[in-house]
Amino acid sequence: MLRFFIVSVVLALVVFESCFSGKTKYEAIRVRGSDSEVNLVQALAENYMDTHELVSVGVTGGGSGAGIAALINNKTDLANSSREISEEELYFAKKRNIDPYEIVFAMDALAVIVHADNPADSITLRDLGRLYSGKMGNWQEISGLNEAVILYGRQSSSGTYIFFREFVVKDEYDTSMIGMSGTAQIVEAIRKDKKGIGYVSSGYLDEKVLQNLKVLKIKANEHSPAYSPLEKTTIISGDYPITRPLLQYTNGRPTGTLLDFIRYQFSPEGAEIIESNGFYPVAPGELMAELKK
Amino acid sequence: MKAVFALAGLFTIFVLLGILALLVTNGMKAFNHIPFSSFFNSSYWNPAALGEPSYGLWQLLWSSLMVTAGALVIAIPLGIGTAAYLSEVASARIRNVVKPIIEILAGIPSVAIGFIGIVLIGPAIADLFRLNNGFNALNGAILLAFMSLPTIISVSEDAMQAVPKSFREGSYALGGNKWITLTKVVLPASASGIIAACILGFGRAIGETMTVLMVTGNATAMPDSFFDPVRTLTATIAIELGEVPYDSPHYYALFVLGILLFLISLAVNFISEWVASRYRYKVS
Fold this sequence. Notes:
- The structure holds 2 protein chains of 2 kinds.
- Chain A is of the alpha/beta class.
- Chain A contains 12 helices and 13 strands.
- In chain B, about 75% of the residues lie in helices and about 0% in strands.
- In chain B, helix 3 (about 60-90) packs parallel to helix 6.
- Chain B is globular.
- The interface of A and B includes residues 96, 157, 172, 177 and 194 of A.
């Protein structure tokens, strides 16, 4: 959270400063949404602004829900979202004459983390779901230790919260799950809690972060091999089971400067930034091909 | 001149009524979509559910009251004790140094206090009570106690200072020592002010949002003790208001929580007025 504050303050200063630098014809793009995407899009925006001096791209977080709500309320040009727009949100968008247009600009893998002292090594998707829905409240079956499981998750404004619930839990989260404000807070809590388990975007995990933590390998089912999200090849090959598209929504088909920024995200330079942030670039699909015309 | 002051007063009332009107009109719309009973016949709050949304608010209400009560249990004895020391025992020099320092405490932003809760108080509680983590009601209560202390101390001290000197002199003339003068004369005489101080402290604690959001864990399970995570009314509004589309049942449901918070403050204020007036009567 703190980081986002700093980012937005710095941005505000940059915008402020450039307003007085005597340039005319100044264009601003407002980007809001997913906390999982905010650092990545921030990096993309900074590099984009290096070569496009007359454009300012302001990126803020707040969660996927906040981004989509901002798009519906016409308070952002580009909504970052780590989940798909919901039926309800589409309904309210239509009501307000907003036509959400979906863009997949990168892939992400979700990693499941536990304390380094936890003897467990891997877990099946089904057991993971049972842990988070409260149907299995004990580590016994997974690590052999007869200890209660302490669940750490995100708050409901997070796209990761929604995606994990739909894709893994497939039920309501257990009410004992602690709702953290951000990825960093989950990592911090798991480091101190030997009975804890949490989910975070794999892009967030580098060597520094991994201290005192263990990333569980995931099995799609009991008979399939276990894959780690730390090996990039397993994610690119699609073997790692918990991957998700990172999305962006615009109001209608993007045009002008906004389109130019979106295209930049698919450029080789953009792909390099996506990779260095721990995510996976995607080929501009049909949507983007259509945009290029 | 008279008109200027009257306008200033009316403006405050206008703002208050405006807030009330906004809360009520938006909150009432919730009942077009959600039956009134569904707020009260369950204690499970999950409006963004995968399946059927659930709007039970007992757990949120209980969480708010629990954290606030815990804060007051810590802050009231500490606050009144400090106020009594400053007013009756400390020399003027010490008072002139200590009181401003206490008032600085009120100026610390709630995010900073929440941060202290995460990195300092939370791990300390976890170590001391051998818990898995420090995200619980106790952590919130301790931090809120710190946040309501300046209010309680400042207002109580003013009330004690307002007790006429002749009251104390009468007590000393009858052979009372400092302790008897404090407990039998100054405290009863300033009781209405002290109660007002505690009520203001309550208001500070129940309305606080950022700090509790950061440290209490926000789990939706009914807490059994102060060592369980809780999710307060204020934290729920703060977490969810950013994600709801305008004009949805969920959006209006959050206003119902706002009305509830408003009603709690209103009720507590009425009770304090009533208690204070009874005390005043007894002393005179």
